[in-house]
Amino acid sequence: MEKQLFSNLLLLSCFAIQAQQEYTIEGHVEGVKDGTLVSLFLLDGNVGSTVATDSIRNGTFHFKRNAGESGLDRLSLMCTREQDFPSMSLSIYAAPNANIKVTGTNTLIYTWKVDSPVKEQQEYNRFIDVSRDLWDEFQRLSIKEKGMRSALETERKAIRAKKDSISDLISSRELKLMQELPISTIWMEKLGRLSTSAKYNPKFSYKEETIALYNRLNDEQKSSMQGQEITVNLFPPTVVKEGDDMADTDLFDLNGKLHHLTDFKGNYILLDFWSSGCGPCIMALPEMKEIQEQYKERLTIVSLSSDTKSRWTTASAQLEMTWQNLSDLKQSAGLYAKYGVRGIPNYVLISPEGKIMKMWSGYGKGTLKLKMRRYLDAPKHETSIILQGNTKIVNYPVVEFTNTDIVEIKQVELTDTATVLRLKAFYIPKYWIQVSPNIKLVDEKGTSYTLKRANGIKPGEHFFLPESGEAEFSLIFAPLSTLTKTFSITEGQNKNDWQINGVRLTK
Q1: Architecture of domain 251-377
Q2: Which end of the chain is less packed: N or C, by CB atoms within 10 Å?
Q3: Positive or negative, the Cα torsion across 81, 83, 84, 86?
Q4: So where are the chain's domains?
Q5: pTM over cut 0.70
Q6: For residue 268, how far is the Cα from the chain centroid?
Q7: Mean of the per-residue pLDDT values for the chain?
């Protein structure tokens, strides 16, 4: 009887402790159709995971959760699957025993009101209130843009310009408020977002004001994880580029063991910058496993996580990563900044001597195999020049810059009547490439030379690569001047147009 009583008391105690950790979120909204799915995301660093969902019924929704170990949960409430909602979320800060009430009268979710006893939420609300009118207009424009599937690009640009103007005004108001408030968790989050705008938005108008706010931080605040990210945003480190020595730092595995990239010199090194919240990063893992096995004698893959330590540990336990899985524990403030990573997945191929060979971002099926075949399997060639009467042949000319590794210049043949480029293409088997009919050569004096014809490919049409993923074709242009020492190949000024600059016709 005493044992049973003790067990019951213990059980009641556990329930009491659990209840003390709970918080509730109750929603009462108007102007939102019944059945709308509401998702609650728990944020860890810059990554969020879905922790609960509910459907709106009679204008209400409800969540009950236990608070995390830190005692403060950063949450996002989203309805992004709905066409009449903006692709934005409502920020909620939750703590044990908090009863949080969410109210709204429309689908402008970012500015739904949050009534909460949590001090971080109250401070966050001040920032919303100071720009509520602007945020409402920003959301209306976002909804309008979301529905403009068949709109002209000029119309889309006009919407984006209006949103940029509103964002600028919001930054101005938030800066003024921050100048009046003491430094706090929310204040630091706002400074982080301002610093991100200063880094990535060339039209950002308030960098000096943001730096002035940053200078209010003490050494401890600057050395925090958030402070380090703000520092590299406002004062970016020197970024390495192709041809440079690789950047290195202290790296740790999941057991806390120290590593350095120099440990892997002697092999090619493939750096994989990733995060557990990045879909393409996860999609690339099976292919990464294949190339790790295929090139295991020559290649070391090093995956570098930008997640918080806890999220990196949790994600790694769910993923099969048979290669080096490391982190500098600085999220985006360490090697990510030194390698200039702006989007993930991001990859860097490093030579056995520690030189950066190639840097690229994004993943599509087969692209990693393509890169490895292109740079690990392709034979290395030296430039050679042959003179035969009035004909000059340059084999494998040196190129100063190219924005594509799809094509390689095998040979340039210069005669009195034509300039012939013999090219080799490397791409995913059975995928297509295309040469623009507007492609031209431009010599060092700025003179242009138009395309006359092509052999092995039809300009302006899709050319599908064979099973080998390799193909050769020729482009014939008007003859370059005999005095030409370098020229460039250009398709145009669009983002995906080929640009191969500084093709040298001398050694």
Answers
A1: 3-Layer(aba) Sandwich (3.40)
A2: N
A3: positive
A4: 2-110, 153-234, 251-377, 384-504
A5: yes
A6: 24
A7: 91
